[in-house]
Every structure is written in structure tokens, then in C-alpha cells.
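Q: Hi! Curious about what tRNA (guanine-N(1)-)-methyltransferase looks like structurally. Here's the sequence.
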Amino acid sequence: MRADIVSIFPEYFSPLEVSLIGKARASGTLDVRLHQLRDWAHDVHKTVDDTPYGGGPGMVMKPEIWGAALDDIAGDGSPVLVVPTPSGRPFTQAMAQELAAEPWLVFACGRYEGIDSRVMVEYGRRMRVVEVSIGDYVLAGGEVAVLVMIEAIGRLLPGVLGNANSVVDDSFAPGAMENLLEGPVYTKPPVWREHAVPDVLLSGHHGKVARWRRDQALRRTVDNRPDLAARLTGLDKHDRALLDELSFRVGPEDMAH
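A: Let's find out. The predicted structure is below.
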């Protein structure tokens, strides 16, 4: 996968040189290219923003600067343009998997009050444009969001994780973990500061371990994300009994058949 990142702070992305993403870059699995947006500004101050039409506080990033940058980077190609913004679609595990299947992504990091909206309209005629939010809060710029997205997307690329099955049990993973949070995890020693690992995890009984993990995922989701738990589907009788015990209801049509 190729990922181009356009920002006025390209140095922000040094974390992409370490850990799994750094290894993916070193192996050629992930080709990250950083671009300084100001390189396409031609005035003495390398200006990339101006006052907003209609008044109001803050500054808006200029369309002609972004247009020049995206024209040069994309050329005649058709990457997916990803624009982090609080007003975008929520970034989810499903979206990470969707974007991981794309061969080429371009990330446009806005600052100030954002990028002139005509940029997204213009490039929406030439390529797929995805405006994405990583949460219901406002950041100083899109760089942090892009770091989050590249890590989530990059770990799904073939060969990046040591064990490809690791993604199957991720929170939110499509399939058995859809709309579920992953439960608690443990390693050695079996007792630490009087806290013991649950006996079932030491039993060697794969069926019981799987059931325990499912139960813990259900409990954690009800406690921490009841909005997700309300969307659970494919529940079996055991799931239902546990949700009843927790006094949490989802519709009867969500029972597994």
C-alpha cells in the first residue's frame, strides 16, 4: 500500500518509523510518503490559509494550495483521498478494513478551521473522498487522526502482524466480535500481588475458554459501550441468559437461529 500524507507539520509523523508500522515500511509493505503543504505556496511567507467568507473566528486553508499539492501527488492516478475532520464519518474497525484493501491512500491534514470545502467537491469528481472523524472532539489538526488511522489500517495489511489471526479477536472485528469489546487478557505469572488468573484460562478446555471470553466481552461491552451492546445480533441462548442477568435487553429478533 502507498500512503501519501500532506501536512504543514510532516515532522509530526516520526512515530511511523517505529514498531509494526516502521517494520512494514522497511519491508516495503507500506510505502509512506510525507509532503510539506507549504512547498506549494509561492508567496514569501508560504501562506496556506486566509480569513473565512461569512466572517467568524479562525482561518481556512486555501483551495489553490491544496489543489496544486493534490494535482502533483495524484497525477493521473485515482487514490482514495482521506480527510480527517470532526464533521466526517466515524472511523471504525470496519472502515479500517475497507481502507486496508485500497492500494493507495492520500491523507490531507487540515489545520485551523479546516480545508476550503471546494477541495473535497473538486476531488470528489476525480477520486473517492472520505471525510473521517476519529471521535466526538476537536483536535488542533488532522495529524493525530492520521497517525491513528494509519496504525489501524497498517496492522491489517498482509504480513504486518506476526500472527494474522490476531485481528480476528480484535474489538469491533467483523464476525463474532462485531459490536463487542475484547475482554480482559492475562499472562504469566498465574498469581501476581494476590491477583490470580481465572481458573478457566488454565484449564486447557478450549470450549470453556471460548465461552468465558465471549461472556467477558459481553460484560465489558454492556458496562463500557451500551450503545454497541444494543446493536448485538446473532445471540445464542447463553448470551441471552447473561444479558438478562445484567438486566440488559436487545430485541428478540437478534437471536441466533
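A: A fun detail: DSSP finds eight helices and nine strands in the chain.
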